[in-house]
Design a protein that fits this description.
The protein folds into three domains: 13-117 and 125-200, no CATH class; 203-416, no CATH class; 467-536, no CATH class. The two termini are 65 Å apart. It has helices at residues 16-45, 54-69, 90-107, 122-158, 168-191, 203-233, 235-245, 248-275, 321-337, 345-368, 384-413, 420-434, 451-454, 469-488; strands spanning 74-76, 79-81, 165-166, 280-281, 286-288, 291-293, 372-373, 380-381. A hairpin with a 2-residue loop joins strand 5 and strand 6. The protein contains 14 helices and eight strands. It has 537 residues and is mainly α.
Length: 537
């Protein structure tokens, strides 16, 4: 892959669709190379096995595995194969994520971010920037997913044989969806770190996504613990089924790899078990907390961990408390991420979190199950709509109660604050006041020495019992003017004989030596320091 010669060189940056095409081609090439190598090893260990005859059959089998890794089903004589290992999706998912990172860096998407944002409040600017980022992420995801899906259709056309025919519609849909999701996540990763990805969403959807993720993660964790416990308890039966197959060394490693890939399906089945509906291992079977009804199961050693048929112990019903606990935690997360100003609205959003959790659980149940042929094996795995309904009610009720309690606690514990405009104005004033340095010494407001002069001259201490020197100087000046006018007219001015209304001035006090009188205009020889001389240099 070509790099860029310079950061600001526009000619070296490829268009986004071109980078997406190169990323899709490289992902398909590397993925098929890995699966072809694994298939070739299996063909060398069993040349007359299910891998086809010759190298063309090996390559066709690798293409079928690549389609299965994207959860695209196949049609076989008398039925359909839809029970595919979810763990196999890790390979194309990781390759697509790396390809998405390269595509984002190659197209320099951060330089393409719109620089002009609408003028308005900070919230408007933030929403505009968020919409621009989401549009950029969606554009990058489509640029990777569109060519990736078109190339997948070519693989679906060349990988069919007389036994297995891949579904072209499922191949297009699965490749398009997986590439879009992974490419979008990779592009979002180039814009910001992992912890800031949820900030691309508005506050309310962000709270629902966080609550849903927490509830699903807790239930999947409980399902994984349940499956591992069943494997440990029933390990002798699993070992016996493996010995019956006698796959050999290479075949045993491939069988172990297949069981590890199907382990993710088993975890989702465990989630369906703790939510109540359970799952089926064939038509007319059921594995649920209320009881177990089984018949002959496929010869997959991992299925040896299934419980025996019969009524389940009473304490097993306690596993149904897990979805309620997960819902309680999800409600707390939802309320803390986006608390509501009214207490009544928080339980509603908690129940909405339960609805989204049910939709996600139903989707996972649909991906984990599917037919494994015809007749009795046409029903394998949990029922998607039953799992979705159960999780919605269990998680939704618990999340609504916990969200309401958490929101009430947040409102009551929140200190009383001023309204938003007043608080913002106070913050602006405090910020501006913090930039003003305090003057040295204490002085009354409006003093003739400002802050700049205070840096060069000490401000004298002014006490309340001192007379205003400016008023005294003005009185003395006007009195002197009156004496001069009276002398010029040949009269003697007696201030005591003037009417009370004209006696506006009082005799000045003794002159003070600590303050220089700059109002002296009587022709005296007064020398004083001009405090503003430095500004005129």
């Amino acid at each position: 892959m070509l790099g860029r010669a310079g950061v600001g060189d526009e000619e070296t940056r490829r268009p986004l669709p071109v980078s997406g095409m190169l990323a899709a081609v490289s992902t398909l090439g590397v993925g098929l190379a890995v699966l072809t190598t694994l298939t070739l090893i299996g063909w060398m260990a069993a040349p007359r096995g299910p891998f086809g005859e010759g190298l063309p059959g090996v390559f066709r089998t690798a293409c079928q595995l690549w389609l299965a890794a994207h959860h695209a089903g196949f049609t076989i004589p008398g039925g359909r194969v839809g029970l595919l290992p979810i763990g196999l999706m890790i390979l194309p998912g990781a390759l697509l994520y790396r390809a998405g990172l390269w595509m984002a860096r190659d197209a320099d998407l951060r330089v393409r971010m719109p620089a002009r944002l609408p003028k308005g409040t900070p919230r408007d600017v933030e929403n505009a920037r968020r919409r621009a980022q989401l549009a950029l992420i969606a554009q990058a995801g489509i640029s990777l997913a569109a060519p990736y899906a078109l190339l997948a259709s070519v693989i679906a056309l060349v990988s069919g044989n007389e036994i297995m025919q891949p579904s072209l519609g499922e191949a297009l849909a699965s490749h398009l969806l997986l590439a879009f999701v992974t490419g979008s996540v990779a592009t979002a990763r180039t814009i910001g770190p992992w912890r800031s990805m949820l900030r691309l969403l508005p506050e309310r959807p962000r709270s629902l996504v966080a609550g849903t993720a927490v509830s699903i993660a807790l239930m999947l964790l409980a399902g994984a613990v349940l499956v591992l416990g069943a494997v440990v308890v029933n390990f002798p039966r699993i070992q016996q089924m493996s010995e019956v197959l006698s796959p050999g060394v290479v075949g045993g490693l491939l069988l172990l790899l297949l069981e590890v890939l199907y382990f993710f399906n088993a975890v989702i089945w465990g989630m369906a078990y703790i939510s109540g509906p359970g799952f089926a291992v064939g038509a007319g079977t059921l594995v649920a907390p209320t009881g177990v009804k089984l018949s002959a199961v496929p010869m997959l050693p991992l299925l040896g961990a299934l419980p025996s048929s019969g009524a389940a112990p009473a304490w097993v019903m306690g596993v149904i408390a897990v979805p309620f606990a997960a819902g309680a935690v999800a409600g707390v997360v939802t309320a803390r991420v986006a608390p509501t100003p009214s207490i009544e609205a928080a339980p509603l959003w908690g129940f909405v979190c339960g609805v989204t959790s049910g939709l996600v659980a139903g989707t996972l149940a649909a991906l984990s199950g599917g037919p494994l042929g015809g007749a009795r094996l046409a029903a394998m795995g949990p029922s998607p709509w039953e799992v979705a309904l159960s999780v919605t009610l269990e998680v939704g009720v618990a999340a609504g109660i916990s969200a309401g309690i958490t929101n009430w606690w947040l409102i009551t514990r929140r200190p009383a604050v001023a309204p938003e405009p007043v608080r913002r104005a106070g913050a602006v004033i405090a910020k501006a006041a913090g930039k003003v340095r305090a003057a040295r010494g204490a002085h009354l407001p409006g003093h003739w020495l400002d802050a700049t002069e205070a840096e060069t001259q000490p401000i004298p201490v002014i006490r309340d019992d001192w007379t205003d020197e400016h008023a005294a100087a003005a009185a003395e000046t006007f009195k002197d003017i009156g004496v001069r006018r009276a002398g010029a007219a040949g009269k003697t001015l007696d201030i005591r004989r003037e009417p009370p209304a004209k006696r506006a001035f009082t005799p000045p006090p003794k002159p003070r030596k600590d303050i220089v009188d700059e109002t002296d205009d009587r022709g005296g020889h007064v020398i004083y320091l001009d405090p503003y001389a430095w500004d005129r240099d």
